[in-house]
Amino acid sequence: MTSAISNATAISEAPQAGPSYPSAAAIEGGLSPGRRRALMLAFFLLVMAVWHFAVVLLQVSPLIFPGPMAVARALVESVQSGELAKHVGITLYEILAGFAFGAVFGLVLGALIGQSNLLEAVLYPYVVAFQTVPKVAVAPLFVLWFGFDTTSKVVITATIVFFPVLANTIVGLKSAPRDQIELMKAFTASPWHVFRMVRLPHALPYVFAGLDIGIVLAVIGAIVGEFVGAQAGLGYLILQRNFSMDAAGMFAILVVLSLIGLALHSVMKFIARRVIFWTDTVTDLSRGA
Questions:
Q1: Which 8-state DSSP code applies to residue 197?
Q2: Is 44 found in the same domain as 83?
Q3: Which of 23, 50, 149, 282 would you call most buried, defined as having the most Cβ atoms within 10 angstroms of its Cβ?
């Protein structure tokens, strides 16, 4: 049986006729990495210049919309005081823990639903119904149930991460070519062999797309939880700056949150390139869902 399954796997892995995708170079416009980074830097400097001169020429109050220099000073002061590091650590823990729980639950439930029409018919409508409930509306309930510490923020983050991972896992498992599945079954392959050799390889690009979306949404989930009720974290720090009308300090924290999101997105892309190295249909995971 093992040799039969190996033969079926070799046939299933043969080039299949299907839609052709543009290469990574074509998607990126044929630009070299160095030129892309130079263009990104030039655009960033242009935005900073427009922002600075707009604030100066229009004489916008720093209480309403601070300039980039004021934001940079506030960021440096927060780093030097040591206050920022403490709150970054707490928020980062909430992001990563919530992402881990939400991703694992989404992967497991998605794998079950993706292979069972019965579970899809019974469970998936309730999952969608839960997803349609605004998490901001139920966040106070989570704080009431789990307290003001990091546990409630982890739960809120996990609920936000859960659905994109689940949906992409289901779509990925169902995207496996039917002829390959039937060929494996014809060689008396077990459901586990079909899952491991056909369904899972086709599902992984979708799974990583869901994970990439989830890791970015995890940042939003943690901040939403801290807005509702927290004693520490970047969301708590934003509320403090808001009460003291420190717009530059708020912008500085927003910059830190953006950097955290970009860093986590880059890490997920790096992992995806190592795991699903056989595909280059997209250059950005967020386009792969």
A1: I
A2: no
A3: 282
- Beta-carbon contacts of 203 under 8 Å, excluding residues fewer than 6 positions away, are 114, 169, 172, 173, 175, 176
* Distance (Å, whole) CA 270 – CA 277: 10
Do 113 and 218 reside in the same domain of the chain?
yes
262, 256 in Cβ contact below 8 A? no
Instruction: Give the H or E element holding residue 25.
Output: helix 24-27
- pLDDT tens, residue by residue, 113-147: 888 888 888 888 888 888 888 888 888 888 888 88
Confidence band (pLDDT; 50, 70, 90) for 2? Answer: very low
Same domain for 143 and 206?
A: yes
Distance of CA 261 to the CA centre of its chain: 8
Separation of alpha carbons 196 and 200, rounded Å: 5
242 Cβ contact partners less than 8 Å away, ≥ 6 residues apart:
250
Helix and strand element counts for the chain (H, E): 13, 0
pLDDT digits (tens, 9 = 90+) for 209-219: 999 999 999 99
- The two tokens of residue 110 are 């998605």
Look up residue 16 and give its DSSP letter: -
Phi and psi, residue 65, nearest 5°: -145, 95
Q: What's the one-letter identity of residue 87?
A: H
Pair (149, 205) in one structural domain: yes
pLDDT tens, position by position, 71-117: 899 999 888 888 888 899 999 999 999 999 999 999 999 999 888 88
Number of domains the chain is built from: 2
